[in-house]
Amino acid sequence: MTEAGGLQLGDALGLYLHWPYCARICPYCDFNVYRPKGDVEALLTAILADMADWRGKTGARRLASLHFGGGTPSLMQPAWIERVIDTAERLWGFEAGAEIGLEANPADRARFAAIGRAGVARLSLGVQSFDDTVLARLGRDHDAGQAREAIDAALSAFARVSVDMIYAQSGQTVDAWSRELGEALESGAGHVSAYQLTIEPGTAFGKRTERGETLAVDGDSAADLYEATQDLCASHGFPAYEVSNHARSLADQSVHNRIYWEGGDWIGVGPGAHGRLGQSSGRGRVATTACRRPADYIAAVSNAGSGIAVDGLERLAPEDDLVERAFLGLRVIDGLDLDHLLATTGCAPDAGAIDRMVGDGFLQRAGARVKLTEQGRLLADRVTREILP
Ligand SMILES: C[S@@+](CC[C@H](N)C(=O)[O-])C[C@H]1O[C@@H](n2cnc3c(N)ncnc32)[C@H](O)[C@@H]1O
Ligand code: SF4
Which of 62, 182, 201, 363 is the Cys-Cys partner for 206 at CB 3.0 to 4.6 Å? Predict the structure, then answer.
């Protein structure tokens, strides 16, 4: 059993709510996002009804986390956020110390105090950069000064604050990135997520890259930036607890993320939200996907009572469950528990390949646990692929 946010995770149940609307769409983003159109409150009504339907499926369990993700859930009216929290309390109830978290854009900083009063205790703030030129290139609707104001507003409204940063844009030097990351680490936030810019197919950045533009650094520079990230975070007392996530203490770690990375159970409501249930059922996990487009999700809840897409319910084959758990679990600092993996999926990674990866310095083994070494973390996905049967 692991611990995060001061909670023992064990048999924790998470609730993820996807709010898909954004004031504008960033050119690098491939999340399920839309500009708000029509009756936005109809989506809230559908989400509340979908939650009630989910309660019938989960039975009586208590929530260890409620996470408002997006999109931009800081665009939700604070009264709507409060209704979601009250409904979750009524339907399931929260464990003592449960995490209620929300992802926010700095542009919405004027409503942070009200969002805090609505019951959110952890804010994850999309700062991305403290350099105005980089922010403009990323298509963000805030500048560095507004990001700093947003951090101050967040620190006074929420018990826990996390700052999201993006690095490895073309031309970024280790010095320039270290200055930006240093500011995030010294901002007062207890958690920093440092994501390497990924060029996603189908996004504006993806199309510009296809036309020959270079928007991200090459592999060698990315490795230098990654190493600088690890060193700077460690020297500021923010060790990595996952490949891209750094926390000052156990209590600053994200419960929501750990449930997801460690193969726990969570429900997904809202357009395109994913869920996983049945980790301890012994019959394999069930994966759920809600209808992707807001209008389809609203129609599905109104017609069938549930937002799950027609083909959105699947019992994972043991091998698929193993692949998913290995990819996510190995990114966490404590690594994978092979005994737990075998007990939950009935399958095991390739023992010979694990020994080889240990010999090559990419993995470490202690009893039933395998984890990435620092060198292995640079190639996390490749190492994981190597050890899968
Ligand atoms: C789903 S976004 C939501 C947060 C919020 N809407 C915002 O933009 O600040 C969560 C985080 O994912 C990261 N992210 C999204 N797309 C990315 C990409 N293509 N490469 C690297 N990081 C990305 C950003 O740091 C972002 O803050
Ligand atoms: S990065 Fe955030 S604000 Fe930008 S489109 Fe994606 S979810 Fe919306």
Answer: 201
